[in-house]
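2024-03-11 09:14:02 INFO worker-7 job=invfold-0412 stage=load source=structure_tokens
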């Protein structure tokens, strides 16, 4: 049986899936790894934790499926975006991976934007982080051969090849004035030190002896360029045509809408290459989606979670079923790690507002889910503003889409149909598998949507439109009320 080993590499853990030629998943394994917070606004992870987790889950799916390792015909990674891993010329890691959640480079971003006269980069972008690293870790910066991202680090560990020349820009912000400023500031002819990126469906290299031994596979397996999580999740939701849109509800959450041309967009949004040639993805990221949900579970339902494990979500749905739309006036905001989109603010933090004596923990839990729906609504509103286009229905995938309660709330808040695909929990891995499948000539981009079929659809309750419009507008006003104080409290 020929299979692809596809990896969905998220903020809090990695998932490996073995995917057959007809897109069936025959084995899945997951492994968590921690976030490290050494200082305020610093969020890091250990690159060795990344690789150890990938190796463990690969051994696990081979054992669970019972296949021979030689039946794995390709590897492809879907990874968390814009994390930075400095390595020396021998591939030794010099510093922890700086997570996409990290906000240490806010001042550097402001300095770059002010110097070049354009508001393009944020603290999460590569250039401010490289500038921070050069100025705060100058000895390590001097030793750095490349700043790898999550994808290129895993590709290197699997193949022994540190970089493959390509003309694919990945997700770095490109602007001549920024490039000139970075070169002058870092005293480099190559200001980025970023390893070249390889397009999703192109072969990067093949597994070498060491990489194969670590993974429990065989040498010579093609490793494909892969992609960050956004285009992978889009492909895994069947979002491949102009105008298609989907929401991803994982550790973070985002909108992906397929567009056929670039636009001038709102602060915090991005436009990425999609898996479909000629089409791009318009989107933006809510930093804490299921991370916020998990925080609420840990703080309001820890005992039940310890007892029920994965059954906690059915328990929550039952407990929240009698909470009315609007949560009896209780508001929540999901900004545990600041926010990127539709609000772009490193310093804002999560809140509960307007709590009253009659509110129960079920109100708080429902308000958390509602706040993420509002965040998705805000992203859709900015898409309409920036492109002039209208979204009339969305697919939703990721772990959050497993909750029928949440998906019905999403349909009610957005006032549009919401559909959930098969294998929604594993759609990131399915999206990664699509890239390898195209590279292996198992399928073409034209029939990718045959991999993905709808499993459920939720229709909006139109009687709730006015209530949710009013509460959404108040939710946005809440940010305006606290943003100045948030900066005062959380800026260094």
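2024-03-11 09:14:09 INFO worker-7 stage=emit residues=492
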């Amino acid at each position: 049986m020929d299979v692809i080993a596809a990896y969905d590499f998220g903020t809090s853990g990695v998932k490996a899936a073995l995917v057959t030629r007809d897109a069936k998943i025959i084995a899945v394994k997951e492994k968590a790894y921690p976030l490290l917070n050494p200082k305020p606004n610093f969020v890091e992870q250990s690159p060795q934790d990344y690789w150890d987790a990938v190796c463990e889950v690969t051994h696990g799916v081979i054992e669970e499926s019972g296949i021979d390792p030689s039946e794995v015909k390709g590897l492809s990674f879907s990874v968390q975006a814009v994390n930075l891993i400095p390595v020396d010329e021998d591939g030794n890691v010099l510093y922890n991976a700086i997570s996409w959640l990290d906000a240490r480079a806010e001042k550097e971003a402001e300095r770059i934007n002010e110097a070049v006269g354009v508001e393009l980069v944020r603290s999460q972008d590569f250039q401010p982080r490289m500038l921070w690293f050069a100025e705060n870790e100058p000895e390590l910066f001097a030793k750095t051969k490349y700043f790898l991202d999550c994808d290129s680090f895993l590709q290197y560990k699997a193949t022994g090849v540190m970089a493959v020349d390509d003309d694919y820009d990945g997700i770095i912000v490109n602007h001549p004035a920024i490039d000139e400023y970075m070169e002058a500031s870092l005293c480099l002819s190559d200001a980025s030190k970023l390893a070249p990126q390889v397009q999703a469906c192109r072969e990067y290299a093949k597994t070498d002896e060491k990489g194969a031994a670590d993974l429990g596979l065989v040498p010579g397996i093609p490793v494909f360029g892969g992609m960050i999580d956004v285009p992978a999740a889009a492909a895994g939701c069947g979002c491949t045509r102009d105008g298609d849109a989907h929401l991803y509800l994982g550790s973070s959450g985002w909108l992906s809408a397929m567009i056929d041309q670039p636009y001038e967009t709102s602060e915090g949004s991005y436009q990425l290459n999609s898996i479909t040639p000629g089409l791009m993805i318009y989107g933006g990221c809510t930093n804490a989606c299921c991370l916020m949900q998990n925080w609420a579970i840990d703080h309001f339902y820890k005992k039940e979670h310890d007892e029920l494990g994965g059954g906690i979500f059915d328990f929550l749905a039952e407990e929240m079923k009698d909470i009315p739309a609007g949560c009896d006036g209780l508001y929540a905001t999901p900004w545990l790690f600041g926010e990127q989109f539709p609000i772009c603010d490193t310093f804002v933090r999560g809140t509960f507002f307007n709590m009253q004596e009659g509110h129960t923990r079920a109100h708080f839990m429902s308000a958390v889910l509602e706040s993420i729906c509002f965040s998705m609504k805000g992203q859709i509103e900015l898409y309409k503003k920036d492109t002039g286009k209208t979204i009339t229905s969305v697919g939703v995938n990721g772990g959050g889409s497993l909750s029928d309660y949440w998906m019905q709330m999403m349909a009610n808040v957005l006032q549009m149909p919401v559909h959930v695909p098969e294998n929604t929990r594993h759609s990131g891995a399915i999206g990664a598998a699509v890239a390898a499948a195209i590279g292996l000539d198992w399928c073409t981009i034209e029939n990718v949507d045959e991999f993905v079929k709808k499993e459920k659809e939720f229709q909006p309750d139109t009687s709730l439109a006015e209530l949710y419009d009013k509460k959404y507008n108040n939710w946005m006003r809440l940010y305006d009320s606290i943003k100045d104080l948030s900066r005062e409290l959380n800026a260094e």
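2024-03-11 09:14:09 INFO worker-7 stage=report msg="The first helix runs from residue 47 to 65."
2024-03-11 09:14:10 INFO worker-7 job finished
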